[in-house]
Write a structure and sequence with these properties.
The protein is an alpha/beta fold. The chain has 24 helices and 13 strands. The chain has helices at residues 3-18, 30-33, 37-50, 91-100, 113-116, 134-139, 144-152, 155-165, 177-185, 207-214, 216-230, 244-259, 290-297, 326-338, 340-344, 377-384, 418-423, 442-456, 462-479, 485-501, 505-509, 512-520, 522-529, 551-558; strands at 22-27, 57-62, 74-76, 81-83, 193-198, 234-240, 275-281, 321-325, 354-361, 367-372, 394-399, 406-408, 432-437. A five-stranded mixed β-sheet has the order 10-9-13-11-12. A four-stranded mixed β-sheet has the order 2-1-3-4, covered by helices on one side. A four-stranded parallel β-sheet has the order 7-6-5-8, with helices on both faces. Helix 7 (144-152) crosses helix 14 (326-338), helix 8 (155-165) runs antiparallel to helix 9 (177-185) and helix 8 packs across helix 11. The longest helix is centred in the last third of the chain and has 18 residues, at 462-479.
Length: 559
């Protein structure tokens, strides 16, 4: 496969699409599928045939369009329209609107902040291309970066381009991606591996899932470029088994890339070979930690090990191993294609590029968003998210998943970047963002996340295994109105102990929701302990009478 071959495929695909007067895209990502998008797709295709428009209308199955709360979503590329909450019965209206220009079903305006305030790099193809057709990906400049890299760049030049871009790992801590690549490359000529961490386990998070479902080839291309740069010939995608649609589309993408010689032996006629396999995770949250993930791929129990040595030096089967997450790899091809300076020109001084978030909870527009680093939380919640529904006020925003912190409304003007979030006790994490209003009890929220960490602890180290259980027990006493000031003092002591003595990130991060809610919402803890009840009325102590426990936190995460 050469540059010219790619251009021919791209031109053929573009010419084929130009033959159609209208292009209708139906979101078939997991969220819309759960609302019947597959039936909508079938109904529109059937209507196109029955109305004799099959030579005029191309109906495409595409990935996530972002506004998940309004799904199933249907967009008409030819006139820029988008329809929300479409049902199969409305297929005739969709098709009729193509010729008449009539409104059709419920229109979803696209000239609104939800769409206009975003900056899409990782998600630029999601909602536009058919994820099961490699030709569609190639028509959108797919695999150009890989072929250009193999044909015209040395591995070291490729690494330097990633270093200059300022890309940092999007999986949590924000470690410089180019530095990690460089460490693996310097280990010499030996067996090396590249792993994509797609074990997305944070409650309320679905960023990686959407990318894999909507644009799988982008991740494969990023992994292949990384493998070329570090000198690896074998790679693994570690994906949650609960993501069957993503897994199936990845399998299809790998087969298609191998067929065109973009994966496998002698890629693009060079001496570089790269083979990819998929490994399914069984849903253990701890396997998002890289050493636990490696153990799982090796067929062992997924538990972490002490570091050093780090996987970059001794990882999978004791070989140097590069591990990045889905979003990190999805940034690689655009950086190589457009140049490091282009990417470095987006974001802040130390946090370059964009970040994908799963926006959930008490906010009008829930779904998948991609924003430039440095945007404020207030802009995300009020402009892109459309504000808090039902006339309520924003109380807090939780970022970083179970290891992240709860940020109060007074800090909503904080820029969204690695350093700023860390400065107030939270973290970027992989990209979950849960918005809470005044109906949420922050003690209850802390208890919910502690219960999650307690359940997901692998049990290997005592601080995490026993500490999370004891902290959850104390939080349960507090929400039940049975705790004393001594219990609160013990909770704070345990937070410090578990955070500083646990083996891996799960235990080290487990106390963070408790620490931040104690810091910013301590009056709620004091109220529960003093017998004044739960101000939000969601805890067992209630406002003078018993109420169902945990409802507030669970509602935020489930949305």
């Amino acid at each position: 496969m050469t540059i010219e071959d790619l251009r021919k495929i791209a031109e053929t695909e573009r010419e084929a699409e130009k033959k159609y007067q209208h292009r209708v895209c139906v979101c078939t990502a997991a969220g819309c599928l759960s609302s019947g998008a597959d039936h909508v797709l079938d109904a529109i295709r059937k209507e196109v045939v029955e109305t004799g428009m099959k030579n005029e209308v191309l109906v495409k199955s595409v990935g996530c369009m972002g506004l998940c709360s309004a799904g199933p979503l249907v967009s008409v590329e030819s006139d820029g329209k988008m329809f929300a909450n479409v049902t199969p019965e409305e297929a005739p209206e969709v098709v009729a609107s193509l010729d008449t220009g009539a409104g059709g079903p419920q229109e979803c305006p696209t000239n609104v902040p939800f769409f206009e305030r975003q900056k899409k790099i990782v998600l630029e193809n999601c909602g536009k291309i058919d994820p099961e057709r490699i030709e569609d990906y190639i028509a959108h400049d797919g695999y150009l970066a890989l072929v250009h890299t193999i044909a015209g760049r040395s591995p070291q030049e490729t690494i330097q381009e990633i270093i200059r871009s300022g890309l940092r790992g999007r999986g949590g801590a924000g470690y410089p991606t180019g530095l990690k690549w460089s460490t693996v490359a310097k280990t010499g000529e030996q067996e090396k591996y590249v792993i994509c961490n797609a074990d997305e386990g944070d409650p309320g998070a679905f960023m990686d899932r959407a990318v894999l479902e909507g644009d799988p080839h982008r991740v494969l291309e990023g992994m292949a470029i990384a493998a070329y740069a570090v000198g690896a010939q074998k790679g693994f995608l570690y994906v949650r088994a609960e993501y069957p649609l993503a897994v199936n589309r990845l399998k299809t993408a790998i087969r298609q890339a191998e067929r065109l010689g973009l994966l496998g032996n002698g890629i693009c006629g060079s001496r570089f070979s790269f083979h990819l396999d998929i490994r399914l995770g069984a849903g253990a949250f701890v396997c998002g930690e890289e050493t636990a993930l490696i153990a799982s791929i090796e067929g062992k129990r997924g538990t972490p090990r002490p570091r050093p040595p780090y996987p970059a030096e001794s990882g999978l089967w004791d070989s140097p191993t590069l591990i990045n997450n889905v979003e990190t790899f999805a940034n690689v091809a655009p950086i190589v294609r457009n140049g490091a300076a282009w990417f470095a020109g987006i974001g802040t001084e130390k946090s370059k590029g964009t970040k994908v978030f799963a926006l959930a909870g008490r906010v009008t527009n829930t779904g998948l968003i991609e924003v430039p680093m440095g945007i404020t939380l207030r802009e995300v919640v009020n402009d892109i998210g459309g504000g808090i529904p039902d006339g309520k006020k924003c109380k807090a925003v939780q970022t970083g998943g179970p290891s992240g912190g709860c940020i109060p409304e007074k800090h909503m003007d904080l820029p969204v970047d690695y350093e700023s979030l860390k400065s107030i006790g939270s973290m970027m994490g992989s990209g979950g963002m849960i918005v809470m209003d005044e109906t949420s009890c922050m003690v209850d929220v802390a208890k919910y996340f502690m219960e999650f960490c307690m359940s997901e602890s692998c049990g290997k180290c005592i601080p995490c295994r026993a500490g999370t259980q004891q902290m959850h027990g104390l939080l349960t006493k507090i929400t039940a109105g049975e705790a004393t000031p001594a219990d609160l003092a013990l909770l704070e002591e345990l937070c410090d102990l578990v955070q500083n003595t646990s083996l891996c990130g799960l235990g080290q991060g487990a106390p963070t929701p408790v620490i931040t809610t104690l810091k910013y919402f301590r009056e709620e803890y004091d109220s529960h302990i003093a017998g004044e009840g739960c101000s939000a009325g969601v805890c067992a102590c209630g406002r003078g009478r018993a109420r169902p426990a945990r409802s507030g936190a669970h509602e935020e995460v489930s949305k």
